[in-house]
Prior knowledge:
The structure is a single chain. The protein is α/β, with parallel strands linked by helices. It has a single domain, classed as Purple Acid Phosphatase, chain A, domain 2, CATH 3.60.21. About 25% of the residues lie in helices and about 25% in strands. Strand 12 and strand 13 form a beta hairpin. Helix 1 runs parallel beside helix 2. About 50% of the residues are buried.
Amino acid sequence: MSLRALLIGDIVGEPGRAILTRRLRPWREAHRVDLCIANGENASGGSGITPDNARELFNAGVDVITTGDHVWKRKEAAALLQAEPRVLRPQNYSPLAAGAGVGLYTLPGDVKVAVINLLGRVFMKPADCPFRGVDDVLRQLAPVTPNIFVDIHAEATAEKIALGWHLDGRVTAVFGTHTHVQTADERVLPKGTAFICDLGMTGPYESVLGRRTDRVLQASLTQMYYGFDVAKGDVRFSGALVEFDPQNGRACAIERVHVREDSTP
C-alpha cells in the first residue's frame, strides 16, 4: 500500500501561514496525505521563523518544517531549533550550529520517515558540501528507513538537478526550495526518486517573490533602499504531491500542486 507526502514550497509571511491555516487540513483530507513537509524559513515577516510561527504551521497541519539560508534571521530561531525536532536547519551548516539538519519521524502504522535539509553553494553563502554531507547521513540512515525526503534549498537549478541524480535510487524524493518560482520539471528518476527543481511559493502572488511590487520597483529604479514588505494579494500555496512505497522507499508518482485561495479542495 502506497503513502502520500505533500511537499510545500517557501511560506512567505502572514499570508502564507494564513492560507495553510484555512486550506491545508481540508486539502490533506481530500487527497489522503500521510505526511506534510513545508519550508518555513520565510514564515516570519518574509524572513526567518519564530516559535509562534512554527506552532501556527503545526496547528495548520504541517508535520515537518525545513528552512534555509534565512533560518537565523530571528533571534528566537536558535532556541526553537534546539527544542523542536520537527524544525530543521541545513545539515551542511557548521556542526556547532543550533538544532539538527536531519529528522526521523514515525507515521501511523509504524512507518519510519527521515527528512534531510540541505543548503546549496552556488550563488549562496559558504556552506559545507551538500553532496558529501548527504552521503554521510545516508550511511547512518540506511539501516533505519528507506523513506527519505531531501529539501535542497538552493539558487542554481543545475546544482539541484545534479543532487537529484546523485541521490536517485537512494532517497524517496529530492525537492528544491528557495527561488519561490515553481518549476515544471517534476518526474520520477529512473531508479525511483521523485524530483522537482523548485516547489514554488506559498504566499501572495500579486508581488515580486512575495514582496510588495511598488517597493521592489522603487528599489530597482532608484538603487535606493526600500523595505521589502510582504505583499497581500492573490494568495496561493504551492508544492508537490509524492506517492511512495513505504516498503522500499521508491516513489511511484509526483504531481505539482498549486492551490488558489478560492479553489475547491
